[in-house]
Design goal:
seven-stranded mixed beta sheet, 17% strand, alpha/beta
């Protein structure tokens, strides 16, 4: 990832440029540094949640530390709405997962999180947090999760280290290079925070219920 970027948007390879330009126009602003990437069809030897999604929004630390302080919360609302529009694209995008028949690293028969869309942010301590979206839930549930996620994130940057997000992840893997994963609880529809180990256990437990 390039240094000092504020936002990175990922689209599928071959996605219409005019739609991308319109999406970016909705959030673009003076001094805002945006980068666009294209996600190709590739094969990944990794757990499903590590695989990059076709549609993704990366909200990087400089966005909060510099740009948002100047632009104000109105831009945060614009960004949140842009993320919700990205969700709508991901909701109707079909992604086929092909795994090796002898693979012990895949949970393809039990994994229900979307491989089409995700939202990622960087914490004050440079941890990456990835919000996942359950294909079994409605788009409205996804949108509500974005609202909750954005509330957590903004409060994190305003009140760190005495914030709810820091408290939610304090007992997860402390390794800075280890991503934190956030999924929507299918019953309560509230956000749950996981590392790789707890997410594996959670998915296996759900498959037994």
């Amino acid at each position: 990832m390039k240094d000092n970027l504020h936002l990175v948007f990922t689209y599928p390879e071959g996605f219409p440029q005019e739609i991308i330009d319109n999406d970016i126009f909705q959030v673009d602003g003076k001094d805002l540094k945006i980068h666009i990437t294209k996600q190709e069809n590739e094969t990944y030897a990794a757990m499903e949640w590590i695989v990059p999604t076709f549609f993704a929004t990366y909200i990087l630390k400089p966005y909060f530390d510099s740009f948002l302080q100047e632009a104000g919360k109105d831009h945060y609302e614009l960004l949140k709405n842009a993320c919700k529009k990205m969700l709508a694209k991901g909701k109707v995008t079909q992604v086929q997962l092909i795994s090796a028949s002898k693979s012990t690293q895949k949970l393809s028969g039990k994994y229900s999180q979307s491989l089409a869309v995700s939202i990622l942010m960087e914490t004050k301590t440079n941890r990456q947090i990835k919000l996942l979206f359950d294909n079994n839930l409605a788009l409205s549930d996804w949108e509500n999760a974005v609202d909750e996620f954005f509330t957590y994130t903004l409060e994190h940057y305003q009140n760190f280290p005495n914030d709810q997000l820091s408290d939610q992840i304090k007992d997860l893997s402390p390794k800075l290079y280890s991503t934190i994963y956030v999924k929507i609880n299918p019953s309560s529809k509230k956000l749950e925070f996981h590392d790789d180990n707890t997410l594996v256990l959670d998915i296996k437990n759900l498959s037994r219920s």
